[in-house]
Amino acid sequence: MIFSEPLETLWQRRFGQDPPAGIPEAVVPFLRHRSVRKFLPEPIDPAVHEALIAAATSASTSSNLQLYSVVSVQDPERRARIAELCANQEQVKSCAWFVAWFADHQRLRHAAALVGEECNGLDYTEFMLMATIDVALAAERMACAAEALGLGVCYIGALRNNPPGVAELLKAPAGAVGLFGMCLGWPDPSASPAIKPRMSLDSIWHQEAFPDEASIGDYDARMTEFYQEQGMSSSASWSQKSGRRVDEHHLSGREVLREWLDKNQMGTR
Ligand SMILES: Cc1cc2nc3c(=O)[nH]c(=O)nc-3n(C[C@H](O)[C@H](O)[C@H](O)COP(=O)(O)O)c2cc1C
């Protein structure tokens, strides 16, 4: 395991405070998460691929519908093409294992059609949300299992930059829409990515009910310190950067998603 910080260090880096008493040791590995974007060239054993898929599919899934698929992309040419589709991100090319996660309605449509069921409600938003939630739960369970083995992971939302390109490359049928990719591999110890601060727990965790007003507490100040430590030159705060990130001109091609979902008969009603 290349990441082994003690609880005190992790809590300070994550929340800018000393940890409260009584944090169980078993939770500490979860606090060590960071996205890994630089990997060693070593492969991951195929048995581990299978184990990680098994961990992912063991996640809870709404009504046991399992509305998702995952496609691994290892062939060098296809990997190069998927990297191109994902804004040419280096980690997509260099990771030992790359998987693309899909919300998938077509498998249920197919199974149900064989027994004479029409699935005529599957195009409601409810089932698009259900598939999206299922994908995220399965993927994050894979991420946790991978990290428990000492692997590093990086999600790739850029998989949504060009939905038709991804569908064509991976031969996705109508009703299967790529939501994000995931890079997995052995972390390169020379890169050592930092623990990224998160908002204080009381910004996120509302006990019994929401407060009258939302608050990010001291997060802008802590993130500014983090950007400086990481040598990032921008003087914009987290609030400024994040506000701009959700500006309608920063959709990186994803403004076509509504149209793409319609075409796939997903979430249209
Ligand atoms: C759905 C999703 C998509 C993401 N897409 C990308 C991506 O395309 N490229 C990338 O480098 N990181 C990506 N990330 C990683 C986030 O940037 C990262 O999780 C966040 O900045 C917090 O940093 P940490 O994971 O190191 O704590 C993505 C994360 C999620 C959950």
3D structure, described in words:
The protein has 269 residues and is of the alpha+beta class. The protein has a domain at 34-193 and 251-263: NADH Oxidase (3-Layer(aba) Sandwich). It is 41% helix and 10% strand. The protein is globular and about 60 Å long. Flavin mononucleotide is lined by residues 33-35, 37, 89, 154-158, 180, 196.
The largest β sheet comes out as: 4 strands, antiparallel
What is the strand content? 5-15%
Q: Count the helices. How many?
A: 12
Strand order of the largest sheet: 1-2-4-3
Pick out the low-confidence regions. Answer: none
Alpha-beta content class? alpha+beta
Would you state the CATH class of one domain? Alpha Beta
**Which hetero ligands occur in this complex?**
flavin mononucleotide
Rg, alpha carbons: 20 Å
Q: Could you tell me the mean pLDDT?
A: 96
What name does CATH use for the topology of one domain? NADH Oxidase
Q: Give the distance, in angstroms, between the N- and C-terminal Cα atoms.
A: 47 Å
How many strands?
Answer: 4
CATH superfamily descriptor of one domain: NADH Oxidase
> Helical amount among residues, as a percent range?
40-55%
Q: What is the CATH architecture descriptor of one domain? A: 3-Layer(aba) Sandwich
Q: Give me the strand/helix succession.
A: HHHEHHEHHEHEHHHH
Oligomer: single chain
C-alpha geometry: globular
Core attributes:
four-stranded antiparallel beta sheet, alpha+beta, 269 residues, binds flavin mononucleotide
In short:
The protein has 269 residues and is α+β, with helices and mostly antiparallel strands.
